[in-house]
Amino acid sequence: MGKNPVIQKESDELVTKFLKKNVSLGIWNEKFNKRYQLLKGERRSKSIFQNE
Length: 52
What we know:
The chain is 29% helix and 27% strand. The termini are far apart. By secondary structure, the protein is α+β, with helices and mostly antiparallel strands. The model has no long low-confidence stretch (mean pLDDT 79). The protein is built from 1 helix and 3 strands. The chain has one domain (5-50). The longest helix is centred in the first third of the chain and has 15 residues, at 5-19. Strands 1-2-3 form a 3-stranded antiparallel sheet, with helices on one face.
């Protein structure tokens, strides 16, 4: 849980969209390599996912 509830809410929304396979994720969506993917929101939230 983050300290700022606004950023935490945005991060939760990014994760929900990602799990639903939504195409429009945040302002920046990039794969580091085949294994990791970074999502950034408009309010500085960041989420990193490990692909299987």
